Write a sequence for this structure.
């Protein structure tokens, strides 16, 4: 089955991984866990518990692998704008403290 999911953290294409994602699956580029709330179609920052599935258990760490039975990977989990803002903030901190760019 073809899918167009990307890592929620770095945006790397995950089409080589088979669905359903395992609790132990990690992004091949950034090693982020993938069976996480932030990667799920039910994840929504604007609702209580940040989950639109009423039957799901509350998970406090949204970027940690979990055992949620409702998990379904989202094709829109990656936020390019958020990543570029985070990268800009990291670069500004590095410049402030005189650290060399290691990327």
């Amino acid at each position: 089955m073809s899918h167009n999911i990307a890592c929620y953290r770095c945006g790397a294409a995950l089409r080589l991984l088979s669905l359903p994602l395992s609790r132990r699956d990690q992004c091949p580029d950034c090693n982020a866990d993938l069976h996480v709330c932030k990667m799920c179609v039910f994840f929504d920052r604007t609702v209580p518990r940040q989950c639109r599935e009423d039957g799901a258990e509350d998970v406090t760490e949204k970027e940690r692998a979990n055992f949620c039975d409702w998990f379904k990977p989202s094709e829109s989990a990656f936020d390019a704008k958020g990543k570029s803002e985070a990268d800009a903030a990291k670069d500004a901190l590095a410049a402030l403290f005189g650290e060399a760019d290691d990327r």
Observations:
- Residues 1-78 form one domain.
- Residues 80-96 form the longest helix (17 residues).
- The mean pLDDT is 87.
- DSSP finds one helix and no strands in the chain.
